[in-house]
Amino acid sequence: KLHTADFWQTQLDRDPERRIHRSYELFWIWLSKSWWVMEAIRLNIFDSDLFLWSDIGCFRDRRYNNETMILHRDVVPQNEMMQMAHKTPNPPQSETLFNDKYHHKDNFYHSGSQMVAYIETWKMFHRYFLETIDAFLERNMIIVEDQAILQSVCLTYPEICAYIPFKEVPDNNYFGLRYVVHNGGEFKLWRKVG
Protein backbone atom coordinates (compact mmCIF):
# COMPACT_ATOMS: atom_id res chain seq x y z
CA LYS A 1 0.00 0.00 0.00
CA LEU A 2 1.27 3.45 -0.89
CA HIS A 3 0.89 6.22 1.63
CA THR A 4 0.51 9.97 1.26
CA ALA A 5 3.23 12.56 1.72
CA ASP A 6 1.44 13.59 4.94
CA PHE A 7 1.72 10.04 6.26
CA TRP A 8 5.47 9.98 5.58
CA GLN A 9 5.98 13.45 7.03
CA THR A 10 4.28 12.26 10.22
CA GLN A 11 6.62 9.26 10.28
CA LEU A 12 9.59 11.63 9.98
CA ASP A 13 8.19 13.92 12.68
CA ARG A 14 7.96 10.92 15.05
CA ASP A 15 11.45 9.66 14.16
CA PRO A 16 13.87 10.00 17.11
CA GLU A 17 16.68 10.57 14.58
CA ARG A 18 14.82 13.02 12.32
CA ARG A 19 17.67 15.54 12.52
CA ILE A 20 20.02 12.96 11.05
CA HIS A 21 17.59 11.42 8.55
CA ARG A 22 16.14 14.79 7.43
CA SER A 23 13.85 13.35 4.71
CA TYR A 24 11.20 10.68 4.72
CA GLU A 25 12.40 9.66 1.26
CA LEU A 26 15.25 7.88 3.04
CA PHE A 27 12.66 5.55 4.61
CA TRP A 28 11.42 4.68 1.13
CA ILE A 29 14.89 3.44 0.21
CA TRP A 30 15.37 1.50 3.43
CA LEU A 31 11.93 -0.10 3.26
CA SER A 32 12.43 -1.09 -0.39
CA LYS A 33 15.33 -3.50 0.09
CA SER A 34 13.31 -6.70 -0.22
CA TRP A 35 11.22 -5.15 -3.01
CA TRP A 36 14.37 -4.45 -5.02
CA VAL A 37 15.49 -8.05 -4.58
CA MET A 38 12.04 -9.26 -5.61
CA GLU A 39 12.38 -7.20 -8.78
CA ALA A 40 15.80 -8.73 -9.45
CA ILE A 41 14.27 -12.18 -8.94
CA ARG A 42 11.41 -11.34 -11.30
CA LEU A 43 13.81 -10.21 -14.04
CA ASN A 44 16.51 -12.78 -13.16
CA ILE A 45 18.62 -12.01 -16.21
CA PHE A 46 21.45 -14.26 -14.98
CA ASP A 47 19.18 -17.22 -14.14
CA SER A 48 20.31 -17.09 -10.50
CA ASP A 49 18.85 -18.98 -7.58
CA LEU A 50 20.72 -17.10 -4.83
CA PHE A 51 20.34 -13.36 -4.19
CA LEU A 52 22.19 -11.01 -1.86
CA TRP A 53 21.10 -7.54 -0.80
CA SER A 54 23.98 -5.29 0.15
CA ASP A 55 23.87 -1.63 1.11
CA ILE A 56 26.42 0.39 -0.84
CA GLY A 57 27.95 1.45 2.49
CA CYS A 58 29.32 -2.08 2.88
CA PHE A 59 31.96 -1.16 0.32
CA ARG A 60 33.46 1.95 1.87
CA ASP A 61 36.93 0.47 1.65
CA ARG A 62 38.65 -1.28 -1.27
CA ARG A 63 38.88 -4.75 0.25
CA TYR A 64 36.35 -6.32 -2.13
CA ASN A 65 36.95 -4.18 -5.22
CA ASN A 66 37.14 -6.27 -8.41
CA GLU A 67 36.16 -9.41 -6.47
CA THR A 68 33.31 -11.82 -7.05
CA MET A 69 31.21 -11.39 -3.93
CA ILE A 70 29.65 -14.84 -3.58
CA LEU A 71 32.26 -17.56 -3.86
CA HIS A 72 30.83 -19.81 -1.13
CA ARG A 73 27.13 -20.26 -1.67
CA ASP A 74 27.40 -23.44 0.40
CA VAL A 75 27.37 -21.38 3.62
CA VAL A 76 23.88 -20.02 2.90
CA PRO A 77 21.13 -22.08 4.57
CA GLN A 78 18.71 -23.57 2.05
CA ASN A 79 15.50 -22.28 3.69
CA GLU A 80 16.59 -19.30 5.79
CA MET A 81 17.56 -15.69 5.25
CA MET A 82 21.13 -15.29 6.47
CA GLN A 83 21.91 -11.93 8.07
CA MET A 84 24.44 -10.31 10.40
CA ALA A 85 24.01 -9.76 14.11
CA HIS A 86 26.13 -6.67 14.84
CA LYS A 87 26.22 -7.65 18.52
CA THR A 88 25.28 -10.69 20.56
CA PRO A 89 21.60 -11.46 19.89
CA ASN A 90 19.40 -10.78 22.90
CA PRO A 91 15.79 -10.78 21.68
CA PRO A 92 13.11 -9.10 23.76
CA GLN A 93 11.35 -11.70 25.91
CA SER A 94 7.75 -10.57 25.59
CA GLU A 95 7.37 -9.03 22.15
CA THR A 96 7.97 -9.89 18.52
CA LEU A 97 7.42 -6.40 17.13
CA PHE A 98 10.43 -4.38 18.18
CA ASN A 99 11.10 -0.78 17.18
CA ASP A 100 12.71 0.90 20.16
CA LYS A 101 16.42 0.47 19.65
CA TYR A 102 17.02 3.74 21.53
CA HIS A 103 15.59 2.74 24.92
CA HIS A 104 16.18 -1.01 24.61
CA LYS A 105 19.64 -1.12 23.07
CA ASP A 106 20.38 -4.51 24.63
CA ASN A 107 17.62 -6.05 22.48
CA PHE A 108 18.79 -4.56 19.18
CA TYR A 109 21.21 -6.70 17.18
CA HIS A 110 20.06 -6.77 13.54
CA SER A 111 22.53 -5.24 11.10
CA GLY A 112 20.20 -4.91 8.11
CA SER A 113 22.95 -3.96 5.67
CA GLN A 114 23.25 -7.36 4.00
CA MET A 115 20.90 -10.32 3.55
CA VAL A 116 21.34 -13.46 1.45
CA ALA A 117 18.94 -16.28 0.60
CA TYR A 118 17.63 -18.52 -2.15
CA ILE A 119 14.65 -17.40 -4.25
CA GLU A 120 11.83 -19.15 -2.39
CA THR A 121 13.13 -17.85 0.93
CA TRP A 122 13.30 -14.30 -0.44
CA LYS A 123 9.68 -14.57 -1.60
CA MET A 124 8.50 -15.72 1.81
CA PHE A 125 10.66 -13.19 3.64
CA HIS A 126 9.31 -10.34 1.50
CA ARG A 127 5.73 -11.38 2.25
CA TYR A 128 6.52 -11.51 5.98
CA PHE A 129 8.25 -8.12 5.75
CA LEU A 130 5.13 -6.51 4.27
CA GLU A 131 2.93 -8.19 6.89
CA THR A 132 5.24 -6.89 9.62
CA ILE A 133 4.99 -3.33 8.31
CA ASP A 134 1.20 -3.67 8.43
CA ALA A 135 1.43 -5.00 12.00
CA PHE A 136 3.58 -2.01 13.01
CA LEU A 137 1.06 0.42 11.55
CA GLU A 138 -1.90 -1.36 13.17
CA ARG A 139 -0.18 -0.75 16.52
CA ASN A 140 0.71 2.87 15.68
CA MET A 141 4.43 2.02 15.65
CA ILE A 142 6.74 4.04 13.42
CA ILE A 143 8.23 2.38 10.34
CA VAL A 144 11.31 4.57 9.98
CA GLU A 145 13.95 1.95 10.84
CA ASP A 146 14.27 -0.95 8.43
CA GLN A 147 16.54 -2.73 10.91
CA ALA A 148 13.79 -2.81 13.53
CA ILE A 149 11.26 -4.14 11.02
CA LEU A 150 13.71 -6.73 9.68
CA GLN A 151 14.52 -7.88 13.22
CA SER A 152 10.79 -8.05 13.95
CA VAL A 153 10.27 -10.30 10.91
CA CYS A 154 12.84 -12.65 12.42
CA LEU A 155 11.28 -12.44 15.88
CA THR A 156 7.81 -13.18 14.51
CA TYR A 157 8.91 -15.84 12.01
CA PRO A 158 12.09 -17.29 13.53
CA GLU A 159 12.06 -20.33 11.26
CA ILE A 160 13.06 -18.18 8.28
CA CYS A 161 16.08 -16.39 9.81
CA ALA A 162 19.65 -17.32 10.65
CA TYR A 163 22.20 -14.84 11.94
CA ILE A 164 25.97 -14.75 11.68
CA PRO A 165 27.08 -13.41 15.07
CA PHE A 166 29.70 -10.68 14.62
CA LYS A 167 32.23 -12.60 16.73
CA GLU A 168 32.25 -15.35 14.09
CA VAL A 169 33.64 -13.06 11.40
CA PRO A 170 37.00 -11.25 11.15
CA ASP A 171 35.36 -8.26 9.46
CA ASN A 172 33.13 -5.29 10.25
CA ASN A 173 30.36 -6.26 12.68
CA TYR A 174 27.71 -4.68 10.43
CA PHE A 175 29.09 -5.70 7.02
CA GLY A 176 30.60 -9.11 7.85
CA LEU A 177 28.24 -11.11 5.68
CA ARG A 178 30.41 -10.11 2.71
CA TYR A 179 33.29 -11.99 4.34
CA VAL A 180 31.13 -15.06 4.95
CA VAL A 181 29.90 -15.50 1.37
CA HIS A 182 33.25 -14.54 -0.12
CA ASN A 183 35.59 -16.63 2.06
CA GLY A 184 33.34 -19.42 3.30
CA GLY A 185 34.17 -21.45 6.39
CA GLU A 186 32.44 -22.97 9.39
CA PHE A 187 30.15 -20.58 11.25
CA LYS A 188 27.93 -21.05 14.29
CA LEU A 189 24.66 -19.52 13.14
CA TRP A 190 22.33 -18.06 15.75
CA ARG A 191 18.62 -18.74 15.53
CA LYS A 192 15.84 -17.58 17.81
CA VAL A 193 14.29 -20.64 19.41
CA GLY A 194 10.50 -20.75 19.55
UniProtKB/TrEMBL annotation:
Which protein is depicted?
Answer: Protein xylosyltransferase
Organism field = Craspedostauros australis
